[in-house]
Amino acid sequence: VASDLRVVAITGASAGIGRATAIRLARNGVAEVLCARRAAALEAVAEEVRAAGAQALAIVADVTDAVAMEAFAAAAVSRFGRLDVMICNAGFGIAGAIDEISPAQMRQLVDVNYMGTFHAARAAMRIFRRQNTGHLIAISSIVGKRGVPSMGAYAATKFAQVGLIECLRAEIVGSGISATAVYPVSTETEFFEIMSRETGKPMMRALGPRQQPAQVADAIARAIERPVPEVYPHRSSRWLVWLNTFAPGLTDRIVSRLRRRPVRAKGAARS
Ligand SMILES: NC(=O)c1ccc[n+]([C@@H]2O[C@H](COP(=O)([O-])OP(=O)(O)OC[C@H]3O[C@@H](n4cnc5c(N)ncnc54)[C@H](OP(=O)(O)O)[C@@H]3O)[C@@H](O)[C@H]2O)c1
Predict the structure, then answer these.
(1) What are the tens digits of pLDDT across the range 249-260?
(2) Which residue has a Cα nearest atom 32 of ligand 1?
(3) Whose CA is nearest to atom 20 of ligand 1?
(4) pLDDT tens for each residue of 154-194
(5) How far apart are CA 82 and CA 131, in angstroms?
(6) CA distance 29 to 48
(7) Could you tell me if 12 and 191 are in contact, meaning their C-beta atoms sit under 8 angstroms apart?
(8) Is the beta carbon of 233 within 6 A of some atom in ligand 1?
(9) Which of 88, 111, 221, 269 has the maximum number of C-beta atoms within 10 A of its C-beta?
(10) How far apart are CA 244 and CA 183, in angstroms?
């Protein structure tokens, strides 16, 4: 293995943003270690990566399993000799007000979105510290910066990822390790279909501005070239964060328009 070969691990690489990122990074000639639960879909992505000229290792694993995430990160080192970038991307959503979300649903969101990030990040950090180099990237969400109606349970896990990454960034200042939080807006992936299924409500639509997974992947690729603390793949979404810092009450009123309604609602909004 050439010593300048960059080795990138991506969780949740079988679809959506993870898949788009795997394919985008293949152009840069990296070696990739990819994980997700669906073996066939994951192997298909690994094949696309190989077809684009990069090496890829597909590992079927669930991010909620700490031991599996240790093995996932270790596989990068045993196969390719090192680990340069860990992208904690696997995640899903459930919609509903706090009293509509069951404790079991909340726990599942925490397990996948937060604990999944924690397990993969922890496994990667142990390797990064040994190497004295590495880049940890967490795919949060714009709702990890500013909540919107019906997304409290999900947003809480996205804020939690940000807390982890921010503290880490403060710890690694001056070291060869870097960390980045990514804040996508609504992205055209399987996310909304899965959210509808998990919520038990008809197809949920994306709300607010939208982007394609390839745009998020491009932004991640740029962050790997030049590590920055935060990435907003949809540039205008930064204004929401600034506005919320200076005028949170006004921002409440603005985002209240993003209230989710059942697709077949007979006009009247619930309050
Ligand atoms: N789409 C959006 O609008 C949007 C906006 C902001 C942030 N995000 C965030 O972006 C990330 C990717 O979402 P996406 O839009 O690309 O969704 P997606 O199309 O549903 O893809 C999710 C990926 O995560 C994997 N995954 C889910 N649970 C897993 C688990 N327990 N263990 C391992 N892999 C798991 C899925 O693969 P398997 O099912 O094969 O395991 C799939 O590859 C998520 O963290 C999401 O919160 C999405």
Answers:
(1) 999 999 998 876
(2) 62
(3) 191
(4) 999 999 999 999 999 999 999 999 999 999 999 999 999 99
(5) 8
(6) 13
(7) no
(8) no
(9) 88
(10) 15
